[in-house]
């Protein structure tokens, strides 16, 4: 079985193996440095805002969101769009 996605990403692990991941910024930079031979480029940024925990979203409120799930892992990959007023 040919693995066409994993090896290009592993190159970055070899380059960065000498650098400990001692901060969130280091992790974000590692993620942002990811590329593949197929041309995938990743943009990453650190969100330093604080958010309240434990907020529940009702099924009715969730149903109002325009969400388009992608064919590949739609539970992880999706597009959110604004709804017209």
Average pLDDT confidence is 79
N/C terminus separation:
49 Å
Query: How many individual helices?
Result: 3
Beta-sheet strand percentage?
5-15%
The number of distinct structural domains comes to 1
Strands of the largest sheet, in order across it? 1-2
Helix coverage percent: 25-40%
Quaternary structure:
single chain
The arrangement of helices and strands along the chain is: HHHEE
Broad shape: extended
Radius of gyration: 18 Å
List strands and helices in order, with pairings.
Layout: H1 6-16, H2 24-32, H3 59-63, E1 66-69, E2 78-81
What does it look like?
The protein has one domain (6-46, 56-81). The chain has a two-stranded antiparallel ribbon. The chain is 29% helix and 9% strand. It has helices at 6-16, 24-32, 59-63; strands at residues 66-69, 78-81. It has 3 helices and 2 strands. It has 85 residues and is an alpha+beta fold. The protein is extended, with a radius of gyration of 18 Å. The mean pLDDT is 79. A hairpin with an 8-residue loop joins strand 1 (66-69) and strand 2. The protein starts with 5 loop residues before the first helix and ends with a strand.
């Amino acid at each position: 079985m040919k693995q066409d996605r994993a090896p290009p990403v592993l190159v970055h692990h070899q380059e960065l193996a000498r650098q400990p991941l001692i901060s969130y910024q280091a992790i974000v930079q590692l993620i942002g440095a990811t590329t593949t031979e197929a041309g995938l480029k990743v943009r990453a940024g650190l969100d330093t805002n604080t958010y309240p925990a434990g907020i529940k979203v009702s099924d009715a409120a969730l149903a109002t969101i325009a969400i388009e799930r992608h064919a590949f892992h739609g539970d992880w990959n999706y597009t959110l769009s604004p709804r017209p007023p």
